[in-house]
Amino acid sequence: MSGSLPSLGMGQGHAPRRRASRLLAATIAACALSGAAGSAGAEDAGIAAAPFWKASAGWWLSDNTYFDPAMNYNIRAYNSLTHIEVEGRRVRETEYKFYAPSKLAQGYGRGQVSAEEGIEVVTITVAEATSANGGARFVQPTTGAPLADRSRIDVLSPDTAMRVVPGPGAVDEYRMVITLPAPNRRYIANFGIVSHPGDAHGAVGDLRGFSVFRASKVAAADFERLRDELRVKNKVAAVVATDAGGTAVVKRLD
Q1: What is the pLDDT of residues 216-233, one digit of tens each?
Q2: Which domain holds residue 242?
Q3: What is the domain count for the chain?
Q4: DSSP 183-243
């Protein structure tokens, strides 16, 4: 009959057809498994092999500024040291932020930091690959850097990505653009956005704050020296870090 499938058996009867059907089913299953393995392989290599993450890996020393919604200085200058580790499907970012004496430092200090003292805030976040180009979602948020379950990093190009923290409303709470335009240079613009009605900072979509980061790559061997120097520069008297239970703990250095 015109348009019918050709016979898969050598002769007539049901047995050859059953064997052919089983062969066809096995072939389809093998192809499906092969495709799934290929997809998983792409994701496995999605972090380590992505150009954006290759450029991002290592230690970064950054000079930063934090603006209020009117673009006045909230904190004119603070510093950070950031370590980005890339392994398998995961990226782990450890950030040490150094704030000079300020209301923000006192807020982080929870009564253990005076008006004349600064503070160091340590945060750790872990993201897991979701796409072959290095896109990732956060799987381990910390108290020091609260992140919604749907927080993610979208890789936009080989040297640029956007980190998104969804808000409780329809608008994101944070959109952070990260770009590495040249070797050993990393720049960040972080937009804090009003995400739901009733926020004291304004209407939905308004700017709550804006931060700029200018970073250069440094050697791992210089971390301790740089950390000590930034503690002295910012008059750091205490460190805020997250314990194993996910609670932010303030520890005095003296």
Answers
A1: 999 999 999 999 999 999
A2: 48-252
A3: 1
A4: TTEEEEEEEEE--STT-TT-STT-EEEEEEEEEEEE-GGGHHHHHHHHHHHTTEEEEEEE-
